[in-house]
Amino acid sequence: MKKKLVVIGNGMSGLRTIEDLLELTNDKYDITIYGDEPHVNYNRIMLSYILSSEKNFEDTIINHQTWYEQNNITLNKGDKVISINKNEKTITSASGKVESYDKLLIATGSLAFIPKTTGSDLKNVIAFRTKADVDTILSTIDKSKTAVVVGGGLLGLEAAYGIAKHGIKTILVHRSSSILSQQLDSTGGKLLQKNLESYGIEFKLNTTVTQIDGTSGVEKVTFSDGDVVDSNLVIFATGIIPNKELAINALLECNKGIVVNDFLQTSDENIFAIGECVEHSGNTYGLVAPLYEQAKVLAKYLAEVKTEGYNGSTLSTRLKISGVDLFSAGDYLGDETTEDLILLDEKVGIYKKLVIYNNKIIGMVLYGDTADASWYLKLLKEETDISDLRTKILFGKSALSGDAGHGGNDVNAMSDDEEVCGCNGVCKGDIVRAIKDKDLKSLSDVKSCTKAGASCGSCSGLVEQILVNTLGDEYNAIEEGICSCTTLGHKEIKLAIDNGEFETVYDVFNKLSWKTHDGCAKCRPAINYYLLVKYNDDKYKNDKRSALVNDRMFANIQKDGTYSVVPRIWGGLTSPKELKDIAEIAVKYDVPTVKFTGGQRLDMLGVKKEQLEPMWKDLNDCGFVSGQAYAKGLRTVKTCVGNTYCRFGTQDSMNMGVLLEKITWGSWTPHKYKLAVSGCPRNCAEATIKDFGVVGVDSGWEIHIAGNGGIKVRVTDLLCKVETDEELIEYTKAFMQFYREDAYYLERTAHWVERVGLQYVKDVILDKEKRAFYALRFEESQKSAQVDPWAKAIEDGFTKEFSTIVINPEESHSFEAKEF
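^ thats the sequence. predicted structure below, dont judge the formating
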């Protein structure tokens, strides 16, 4: 039997909780919602767009009436709850309804704070919080009168901008010396003020309203500087107060707001609270992102899905006022112990400020260019050491990654028909329309709906910029779930697997409450990989059914259904005999195309499925093993001729490349992994765009990491220099093992290092004890991994499924339709 869940409040935080709850389970609760406004759930953040006539009310609706009906939710619009009886577990509404509950959720939001000023009780002295407030403003503004807005915060600026767009003279009064002082420093505030003044808004800073005069409604307003203005409208946007009256009367614990624990539970175990009305660990929140984070935790708790509690939020604000993008987060003011990195171009209207403490970002202000806001915020949240990024970090992520044409784009300058996702042919206009028409809020939503960013992922940053540009503060920058089967991300899943005991992928699905029994093509390979990382091949049976198609077939499938076969050629070094053997096998099986690869190997393309087993056997008989060109593991080791033949060579790169490949082949990693060894700094083997690059110098070897030569080119970071071959081999093993254990599944080394920071990797690999620890773990894992998959597949009989099914016509039966 379903339990009864009653929600007091039909706003954004309460309804987001219900949305998240329904994603997890739809058979645990009968849900009833009471809202004191006569509307369905709408987006309060977009009220300023209604005020400026850029949108209508329909555009702001989040959940239409049909949504409530489809989910069997009873909605009581315009019926305010007036009391809670926690002993009887009932609530009473203004209309006289008495409703019982098993679980109660208070989501009453906040009330506008209007200071007691002479005349503040006159008609047309209002707040800016609801649809009704917007209606009052629009029906009151008069071009012959001046509108006065009190408060230089976000709501005040949006109200002033919305009114000014109608050609109304507008004065904004703010008691501080800089506007938006809770989100911007003084420099950012001055830039924004200059922009807003171009719309005709007059600013009175360090000023307050001392008196409002009128007989019944507003007629005159007096300011603390002595000025008096004729006005018929005063809007107070001077702050909010948690709406806790119901909770106080119900004898729930309250301070600034309704006190809740990490699972949003009040002092009564059956009553929960969320949003602007609550106080968690002494903090109250008035921004959307923290409220959505609370909703995610509460939904899991109500659904009885294991979850970590809510630990508070890193406050960040994305704003879009008068067409200007703003972003701030953390301690953006700093103090005498911090340092500031600043980029300022007043003429262009760009200001970036990063506040640094102990080589880590602790706060930021971005004005005019917020394209890298999510990246900076990630560096802040993960406490990444930016020592190696300082000289370029203000120029954005693309300046560090050497992005070859896929980053650093100004989304405002892009036309709607400009392609964003080349893999799926998705244009900017497609994404913007989907965001608006289908109310998409996160990168995951856009990927699922439009497929933009869902294939190679190189355009994900640009898609995220479009989201930020389109939604502003509504953008939900939460970590994506690994797939639609679960709300858990890679970090949570890795942690759960590390701390538990599992034998199969199904054990993980069951323990972590997967929505599907068998998982899907996204999560199964990832879970299989994380189990492999934990237990190694010798302790965990690698689940081939959970592998991607190329990994199951031990060959790359081509677009025409044929396969690509690539034998391993150690370090790109071969012999006439090997070349002859490959040529004869290619002739034997009538291979239509043989190509030299970029990894210094030979690729036989166009091989039919039924040819794979005999071709592999012939290659094995000639001494070849699989080149694993399909694998999430070591692909190639590219080399130059080095000092064996080259007059510029300083080290024996050919033999070192062969040695490193023989040490690392057969390995499994989160994604494909490539090495290169160059014999001198001329770098003919292109070692500085590989996952692990080695460059010979007179004194030994340079080790470079995290390069990428694909769609998004990234030059390697210098890890260190070593003098001996033995040191190089230890570093090779340790880095590969640390990457395979620490990175997320399908995360290339380039993306991993950008996420965790170069210093994080150096702290492990340059530490002698830690390096030895990971090198030893790599050696252990390789003992069971270095088995040729071609030979093993034949031995296990796996390749029998490659055989063509032939039915003898004489033994088959045919059926003919007959007329009766």
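Residues 265 and 272 are 4 Å apart (CA to CA).
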